[in-house]
Design a protein that fits this description.
188 residues; mainly alpha; Glutaredoxin; 2 domains; three-stranded mixed sheet; 6 helices
Length: 188
């Protein structure tokens, strides 16, 4: 009788120890990811483009609409492997603000900074009649473009309060665009 009790106690202790180790490993992995994100942010200082007064609009920044689902899926896989965030840029090649935003993203120092922090997917929404469901997956209904969503590799939306904030890119100073993206990226 005493032997059976001892076996049960050891089995319970073994299960508790196993659960503790699993929890400790998960915490260590989360800390490592947070450190990698902090290192990535430290490596790339925020680009200073205050002196740029004219942005050249991108000609056709959005690829064919039918590529979007696959590109978004691949972006999340890449973001998870590289400890970056996903930036989904919903727009259309007909949209002047979308083309200006893409022009800001193309400034060499901005492009480098963006590449270090984000996996970017330009999502073609046609004339607001295609790929709308991709934004709705994250609780966002597109009413105007550009609409920019910043997400963790796990799919958590970091800028629910500002998805439309870059919608007037033509009126914004280019530095303001970069600063806003950086503020969103600082969110845990």
């Amino acid at each position: 009788m005493r032997f059976n009790h001892s076996v049960r106690v050891i089995a319970c202790l073994s299960l508790a120890l196993s659960a503790y180790i699993t929890q400790a490993q998960a915490q260590a992995q989360a800390q490592a990811q947070a450190q990698a994100q902090a290192q990535a942010q430290a490596q790339a200082p925020l680009p200073d483009i205050r002196k740029i007064t004219t942005i050249t609009p991108a000609r056709e920044p959005y690829p064919p609409a039918e590529l979007a689902s696959k590109q978004v899926h691949e972006a999340f896989l890449t973001a998870a492997k590289t400890n970056r965030r996903v930036l989904l840029d919903f727009g259309g090649n007909w949209c002047p603000d979308c083309r200006i935003l893409a022009g800001i993203f193309a400034v060499p120092s901005v492009s480098q900074w963006l590449d270090e922090h984000f996996v970017i997917v330009p999502v073609n929404v046609g004339h607001l009649d295609t790929n709308m469901e991709l934004a709705q997956q994250y609780g966002v209904t597109i009413k105007a473009v550009p609409t920019v969503l910043l997400l963790t590799p796990q799919g958590r939306l970091l800028n629910p309060d500002g998805a439309l904030a870059l919608g007037s890119a033509r009126q914004m100073a280019p530095q303001s665009v970069v600063t806003l993206l950086n503020e969103w990226n600082q969110r845990p």
